[in-house]
Amino acid sequence: MQGELERALGQVTGEPVRIVLAGRTDAGVHATGQVISFRSGTKVDPLVIRRGVNALLPQDIAVRDLEEAADTFHARFSATGRAYEYRIRAGAHREPLERHREHWVPQPLDEGAMERAARDLIGRHDFAAFATGPLEGRSERDVRVAGWRREGTLLRFGIEANGFLRGMVRAIVGTLLWVGTGHTAADRIGAILASRDRAQAGPNAPAAGLCLVEVKYEGDAGETSDEDEQR
Amino acid sequence: MQGELERALGQVTGEPVRIVLAGRTDAGVHATGQVISFRSGTKVDPLVIRRGVNALLPQDIAVRDLEEAADTFHARFSATGRAYEYRIRAGAHREPLERHREHWVPQPLDEGAMERAARDLIGRHDFAAFATGPLEGRSERDVRVAGWRREGTLLRFGIEANGFLRGMVRAIVGTLLWVGTGHTAADRIGAILASRDRAQAGPNAPAAGLCLVEVKYEGDAGETSDEDEQR
After folding, report:
1. Which of A25, A124, B145, B160 has the greatest number of beta carbons closer than 10 A?
2. Residue B211 CB partners (closer than 8 Å, separation 6+)
3. How far apart are CA A72 and CA A75, in angstroms?
4. At A115, which helix (H) or strand (E)?
């Protein structure tokens, strides 16, 4: 994704471009709200750049908006929050047309227990138990929102924090699915957080269900953060 | 699709199965409301057959429901109507996550003209001008519903008829896009129908935007039809 964008931007602006992504997304993870920044000496109009870049990009990437930012703006370090959504199809059958962006769980799920467990994630906690791979830097994060919403047979898990550790949302969803299927008690979240042990949390839920839906900046959230986005 | 379903059904029921589809769908066309029928001497419970078949089917096909029908039921000949939807993304950029099921049109569209033209399709007409390939049998069809609905930047064209000729919906949408972009006047539909000449209508809109959303049977529609479904 980064490579394709840099190539397309370089071609349209006529100079080499290095972009900064607000949130990293693993292979198979979607993003409808990704934000990038880059420096350029180009005189080409932003609208013209956007059109040219979209014409060059592969079908699975598109630039929605492009505008000039303040000199101090940095897509990653200026961000004060990120919001992800994880989609679970809870029903007797798959939804073939949605298969690329949701995870199908045929087992019955205790949604009340999943919601109670989700609530225990809210607040400032050390999320080391939910991180994939070695920790880089501090592992505390401020989770502001975490909860489930049902639409028909679709269960949408929304989570917002100042930043996320690598694999954090997928490990959280995997753990909440353990709770939903009765494998783990709903009140275990606190103990799992306290353990800082990845083995205590559930397996990473599949990438397809995950989507970066929004990146927040000063003015949206009113709080600055220098936390590294590692998810 | 037919082959995969017949293989899976044959494996689960333990006997060769030939299925009948209510509506044919070309490669790349989706279906959320396809109906099939087959004869079987199996004693296996329909719920068990459905689960077994869904476990064997590839990820892009799923059986939602399976039930025993009257001996006279035939998915294709018992159908009294079919409803298709065509999705157009009318906006400045593509929607990458929806790219498999919609057609992106970046040009401005005159939606009022497209709606007026759509209305002229309603009624019993000879749709030979909108058929792909040689006609098999009669080319009159009763279009009961044809119209556009906007949701944000998504334009949804819904059309319902007793049956459709091969390629008919895609040719209609291609023609309505000609109207929307000013290539063809909104009041030309009657003349195109009267011409019975495929060259008068617009090009087939891409398959990806099309979806068979419902098949209607006696009781739903109150009208029997022996029309062949050729789309």
Report:
1. B160
2. A97, B29, B30, B31, B32, B84, B85, B86, B87, B101
3. 10
4. helix A111-119
SS3 A54: helix
Question: Does the beta carbon of B4 lie under 8 angstroms from any beta carbon of chain A?
Answer: no
- Residue A128 tokens read as 């080391």
Residue ranges of domains in chain B, CATH in brackets = 1-79 (3.30.70.580), 80-217 (3.30.70.660)
Q: Do A59 and B95 touch (CB under 8 A)?
A: no
B228 as an active site residue: the answer is no
A20/B contact by beta carbon, under 8 A: no
Q: Which residues of A touch B32 (CB under 8 A)?
A: 97
CB B34 within 8 A of CB B213: no
Contact residues, chain B, for A32 at CB < 8 Å: 97
Q: Which pTM does this prediction carry?
A: 0.83
List, run by run, the mean pLDDT of 10-residue segments along chain B (231 residues): 94 95 88 96 94 94 94 95 97 89 95 98 98 91 97 97 96 98 97 97 96 89 46 47
Selected for mutation to probe chain B from A64, A93, A212 (highest B CB count within 10 Å) is A93
Closest partner residue to A96 among B61, B94, B96, by Cβ? B61
Structure tokens at B221: 């529609």
Which ranges in chain B belong to alpha helices (H)? 2-13, 46-56, 111-119, 168-180, 189-195
Cβ of residue A89 closer than 8 Å to a chain B Cβ: no
Handedness of CA A11, A3, B99, B6 (dihedral sign): positive
Q: In this prediction, does ipTM exceed 0.85? A: no
